[in-house]
Specification:
By secondary structure, this protein is mostly helical. It is built from 3 helices and no strands. The relative contact order is 0.06.
Length: about 90
């Protein structure tokens, strides 16, 4: 497989997984119980609580991915092969 397609394929698979498995519960047992009790009374704050928890969970992973991408680009730049004038 051509290596230039691997990053696009990886990002595509991750996006598909994010949109397919979007109904995730990120709450502890007490938060879940309180959110379920509030939604039975017609309150919609439980969904907002769950979304907020998942948002806070995702930020450290996004930062780690950003650092990894920067590290990879710097590694590639420092270990680049010098181009030969005789290569075509």
């Amino acid at each position: 497989m051509n290596t230039k397609w691997i990053p696009f394929l990886t990002i595509g698979v991750l996006l598909i997984l994010v949109f397919v498995f979007s109904d995730v519960s990120g709450q502890c047992a007490m938060c879940t119980l309180n959110a379920e009790n509030s939604t039975t009374n017609g309150n919609t704050q439980g969904k907002g609580l769950n979304d907020g928890i998942l948002f806070l969970l995702a930020i450290p992973y996004l930062i780690a991915v950003g650092i990894g991408i920067l590290w990879y680009k710097k590694y590639r730049k420092s270990h680049a092969k010098p181009a030969s004038p005789f290569d075509k």
